[in-house]
Write a structure and sequence with these properties.
The chain has 284 residues and is of the alpha/beta class. The protein folds into two domains: 29-113, Leucine Dehydrogenase, chain A, domain 1 (Rossmann fold); 139-261, 3-Layer(aba) Sandwich (Rossmann fold). It has helices spanning 7-27, 43-59, 74-85, 105-111, 123-130, 139-150, 170-179, 194-199, 244-250, 261-280; strands at residues 3-4, 33-39, 62-68, 92-95, 159-163, 183-187, 203-206, 224-227, 231-232, 238-239, 253-254. It is globular and about 50 Å long. The model has no long low-confidence stretch (mean pLDDT 97). The chain binds guanine.
Length: 284
């Protein structure tokens, strides 16, 4: 039976580290600040944003929320981002995704000052990540690396398979695993022999968004299985991509959903906000 990786515990340690750094900054008169912009009334986004605000409070980070109605225009959002770019109280800006249809998310992300881009979504920061010279680590993939480290999973030289090629998870996840000297394969909806490729994985990261997508027979004995999926099962219960009960019989270690990767994303965001504050004050 697999060891279950406790994402809540690891996230608490990361947040405590960020809080310590924030307290040291406060002694020098610098308070890190995060602005979160949310448009419309997507219930999942509402929960994420509330959790981010709560984490800020716990970490000693000042936060501002801009909850804007569904009909907010691109121009209004661009003006808000521009204002936040120049607001000295704000170290990090996050525009909660997804945005309502009709808004150009990519253009908004590009309007954020790269030094305040705590999601690491701006093309400048994506490029820096490609070069291995990043300032901000992409939150969810960085959280996955922390989880692997916490479970003493060696990445160097190992076969790492990432299922999913999104800009938020799949692609940056592959980059970080490669930076850690993993041998990385990215699988997606057009991949042939997916199950066979997964069976060769020492580290299997699933970011598909489909409940039960990774079945027990796709897991190599002893593998580290990281589930980035956030889905609802037929009873409306939160679940990941991995058929947990099957996979935990074969895996060496595995993350649960909830309580695995989810809490890590927010913890890494806190770390990035502290880093952003330091960067803007010339302290790193
Ligand atoms: N929506 C779901 N996850 C994220 C995230 O990490 N950042 C932003 N901005 N939106 C999200």
């Amino acid at each position: 039976m697999a060891v279950i990786i406790d994402g809540k515990a690891v996230a608490a340690r990361v947040k405590a580290r960020a809080a310590k750094e924030a307290a040291a900054l406060a002694e020098r008169g610098v308070t890190p600040g995060l602005a979160v912009v949310i448009v419309g009334s997507d219930p999942a986004s509402r929960i994420y944003v509330n959790n981010k605000k709560k984490a800020c409070q716990e970490t000693g980070i000042y936060s501002e929320e801009y909850a804007l109605p569904e009909g907010t225009s691109q121009g209004e959002l661009l003006s808000l981002v521009e204002r936040l770019n120049h607001d000295p109280k704000i170290s990090g800006i996050l525009v909660q995704s997804p945005l309502p249809g009709g808004l150009d998310e990519a253009a908004l992300v590009e309007a954020i000052d790269p030094k305040k881009d705590v999601d690491a979504f701006h093309p400048y920061n994506v490029g820096k990540l490609m070069q291995g010279r990043q300032i901000f680590l992409p939150c969810t993939p960085a959280g996955v690396i922390e989880l692997l480290n916490s479970a003493n999973v060696e990445i160097a030289g190992k076969n790492c398979v990432v299922i999913g090629r999104s800009d938020i998870v799949g692609k940056p996840m592959a980059m970080l695993l490669m930076q850690n000297n993993g041998t990385v394969t990215i699988c997606h909806s057009k991949t042939q022999n997916l199950a066979e490729i997964c069976r060769g994985a020492d580290i299997l990261v699933s970011a598909v968004g489909k409940a039960g997508f990774v079945t027990g027979d796709m897991v190599k004995p002893g593998a580290a299985v990281i589930d980035v999926g956030m889905n609802r099962d037929e009873n409306g219960k939160l679940c990941g991509d991995v058929a947990f009960k099957e996979a935990e019989k074969t895996a060496g270690c595995i993350t649960p959903v909830p309580g695995g990767v989810g809490p890590m994303t927010i913890a890494m965001l806190m770390q990035n906000t502290v880093t952003a504050a330091k960067l803007q004050k010339g302290l790193c």
